[in-house]
Write a structure and sequence with these properties.
193 residues; nine-stranded mixed β-sheet
């Protein structure tokens, strides 16, 4: 495993929530960490922020409706995954490289700078109607995928990738949905079905 970033040890996190109007907020600074959030009711929100490399974040929301999920990963070789069931849901994953971690305790977030990252993966799966999903990735050799299920209609999905050798896939099986893949760079692959 990679050495800790910013002097912080690696930690794993698992949160399971089954009540009404749930909120989970996880922040991890270091390498080779895992965060898993499971929420089972409507009107839930989950956010995971990871700074480092070789990290994994997974958010599963199985409530009936109006769920929000967000994953921010700053580093390389990270993977974020969001699965939502129900309608009226929103999900987003952002992945980039960050430097200045060593100054985080003394300078706060103002000491950070962002740059392209490599080898990240983002997957969003939504089973419902009126859902929105977005993936933003900077750097090379990244993979972004959004799937909106067979019963879905009136959904929106977008992937933006800047860099080279990236892959993006949007799959929608429904009616009246919107999909957009935007890539800048060279040797990228994009598919919408």
């Amino acid at each position: 495993a990679a050495a800790p970033v910013g002097g912080f040890a690696s930690n794993d996190s698992t949160i399971t929530q089954g009540g009404a109007d749930e909120l989970a907020d996880v922040t991890q600074d270091g390498n080779d960490q895992t965060s898993i959030v499971n929420q089972t009711s409507s009107q839930s929100a989950a956010y995971v922020l990871q700074v480092g490399q070789l990290n994994g974040a997974q958010i599963d929301q199985t409530g009936a409706s109006y769920q929000i999920a967000g994953i921010g990963q700053y580093g390389t070789d990270n993977h974020g995954q969001i699965t939502q069931t129900g309608y009226g849901n929103a999900a987003g994953i952002g992945q980039s490289q960050v430097s200045g971690i060593e100054n985080l305790p003394s300078q706060g977030l103002g000491g950070l700078s962002f740059a392209p990252a490599t080898g990240n993966g983002a997957t969003i799966t939504q089973h419902g109607n009126l859902d929105a999903a977005g993936v933003l990735q900077t750097g090379n050799y990244n993979h972004g995928e959004i799937t909106q299920s067979v019963t879905s209609s009136v959904n929106a999905a977008g992937i933006y990738q800047s860099g080279d050798h990236n892959q993006s896939t949007i799959t929608q099986n429904g009616t009246e949905s919107l999909a957009l893949n935007l890539q800048t760079g060279s040797d990228n692959e994009s598919e919408i079905t």
